[in-house]
Amino acid sequence: MPEEIEKLKSENERLVKLNSVKSEIVSIGAHQIRTSLAALKWIIRMFLDGDLGRLTLEQETLLRKASDGNERAISLVSEILLINKSEDVVEKKYIFENANLIEIIESTIFDFSGESMGRGIEIIFLKPNNTIPHVKIDKEKTRVILQNLIENAIKYSHYHGKIFISIKVNDDGLVEVSVKDSGIGISEDSKKKIFEKFYRTDDAQKKEAMGSGIGLYTTKKISEAQGGKVWFESEAGHGTTFFFTVPIAKK
Ligand code: ADP
Predict the structure, then answer these.
(1) How far does residue 75's CA lie from ligand 1's centre (Å)?
(2) Out of 68, 69, 77, 210, which residue is the most buried by the measure of CB atoms under 10 Å away?
(3) Which tens digits make up the pLDDT trace of 15-66?
(4) What pLDDT digit, counting tens, does each position of 229-246 carry?
(5) Considering only CA atoms, which residue is closest to atom 10 of ligand 1?
(6) pLDDT tens, 163-197?
(7) Cα–Cα dist 58/64, whole Å
C-alpha cells in the first residue's frame, strides 16, 4: 500500500510539473501573438487616420473590418492569458502573513478608479469606525479575490450605478468583506452554477461579450484555501452582494 501511495504521489508531482510547463508555453505564445496583433492594430490605425494618404471608400470599409477582427482577436488572446494566469494563481504556493485588509481594499479600489469612472460608476468604501484586526492571508491572492469581485460589480452594473464595499468582524473569528452592486443580478436558475469554472449567465453574456467565467471559480478556491468562504445574495434585475471571509491573525 505505501508503495502505491508513493507512486501516486510521484505521478501527481509529474502532472503538476507538466501543467506548469503547459502554462508557461501558453503564456509565452499568447504574449507573442498579442504583441503581433498590437503592431497590426497600430498599422491599421495609421491607414484609417489617413497618415499614409487618403483612402477610397472601399479601402476604408475593408480596413475597418480588419480592425474589428483584430480587436476581437486581441480580446480573445487576453482572455486566454487571464485564464492561464488564474490557474497559476490558484496553484502557486500560498505565502501567509499578517496583513491589514483595509489597506488592501483601498489600494484595489484605487486600481479600479479609471475603469469605474469610465462607466460612470462610483465605488464607496464604508469604512468601519471600530478597528479591524489584522488577518492571516496571502496578500496577493486576496487582492485577486477583491479584483474579481470589484471587476464583476463594475461589469454587471448599469451606468451611474453605485458599488458599496464593507468590512466587519464576525463572531466566528473571521473578518467578512462584502461587495454590493445594484446591477443585473443573478437569476434563480443560475445561482447553483455561479462558481463553476467557465460558467457565465445568459444575462452576463448579453451585457458583456467578453468574460471567461473563471474569476469566481478562482475566488472560491483562494477563499477556501485561506480558511474562509465566499457566497452571495442576489435578485435578478436588482443587484448582487458577494461576501468573503478570511481568518483573523492570532496575537
Ligand atoms: P466572468 O465575469 O468573466 O464571466 P466570473 O467567474 O467572474 O466570470 O463570473 C461568473 C459569472 O457569474 C458571470 O459571467 C456572471 O454571469 C455572474 N456574475 C458574477 N458576478 C456578478 C455580479 N456582480 N452581478 C451579476 N452577475 C454576476
Answers:
(1) 17
(2) 77
(3) 888 888 888 888 888 889 989 999 999 999 999 999 989 999 999 999 999 9
(4) 999 999 999 999 999 999
(5) 213
(6) 999 999 998 889 999 999 999 999 999 999 999 99
(7) 10
Residue-range domains of the chain with CATH: 2-91 (1.10.287), 97-247 (3.30.565.10)
The half-sphere exposure of 116 on its side-chain side, counting CA atoms within 13 A, is 22
Angle between helices 139-155 and 101-111 (to 10 degrees): 40
Span 86-112, pLDDT tens digits: 877 887 889 999 999 999 999 999 999
CA of 179, closest atom in ligand 1: 23
Lookup result for grid cell 463572531: 171
Cβ < 6 Å from ligand 1: which residues? 148, 152-153, 156, 181, 183-186, 194, 199-201, 204, 211-217, 240
AA letter at 149: L
Phi, psi at 180, each rounded to 5°: -115, 130
Choose the residue to mutate in 85, 200, 234, 243 for probing ligand 1, maximizing ligand atoms within 8 Å of C-beta: 200
Note the residue count of the chain.
251
Find the 13 Cα to ligand 1 centroid distance in Å.
Answer: 33
